[in-house]
Amino acid sequence: MPAACRLRRRGDAWHRRRDASFAAGSAGVAWAATGGLPGGPFTAHMTQHLIVGMVAPLLLVLGRPLTLALRVLAPGTPRRALLALVRSRLVGWLLFPPLAALLNAAGLWVLYRTQLFAGMSHEPWLHALVHAHVLAVGLLFAFAVCQLEPVARRWSIGVRGASLLAAGAAHAVLAKTLYATPPPGTAFAAADVHAGAQLMYYGGDLVEAALATVVAVSWYRATGRAEAHRRRRTADHGPLPVASNGL
Fold first, then answer.
1. Residue 66 within any structural domain of the chain
2. What is the 3-state secondary structure (H, E, C) of 140-201?
3. Measured between alpha carbons, how far is 62 from 4 in angstroms, rounded to an integer?
4. Which domain range does residue 198 map to?
5. pLDDT tens, 32-46?
6. How many domains does one find in the chain?
């Protein structure tokens, strides 16, 4: 990416795996939007859903775009504006993991358990709007759960883990309902619906396992850094004095 190249030219470190992750996520969104996807109509749609709403958001978040932007921008109005935005109360609430999980899961239930999905096939603008929404809430959820970027409010691993489990459960139950009953107003073949529902179920599990791995690794590294800092302070200042019990 050009911004990453600018960092490296001035001697700053930036992992190339972040570039690769962001590029892969961007390519996934582009392919899902324009490329021919395998399977029947519903299975192809579900492949698109998994890429746009789950896989690509995770890859994009792993690219650390906010961190890159803050490191590239020189001190001035644009950087101050970006910092003010990410530290605003609105962004803080949107990045509350339970709320991000609710927005993500609720949108999918509305899409597949109402007439909205059937209407997408007749209105191209609605199709584009829905997929933009799926990408946006997917990014919001991955951003809130992974918590890799420098935002003002940091949530505990318990809050993030519980939110991930709740979203995964809602996703799995929705997939099971689709296996039994297709979206209202549609006439897909039963085999196509079953294949799409299974893809949603098992594919979603894989992405959620990847999200859980990111959460666990980031927590492990954070606790490791905190422990190393504690040991350095102990080495610099010596062990804390033990209070006398008066005996």
1. no
2. HHHHHHHCCCCCCCCCCHHHHHHHHHHHHHHHHHHHHHHHHCCCCCCCCCHHHHHHHHHHHH
3. 14
4. 88-231
5. 888 667 678 999 999
6. 1
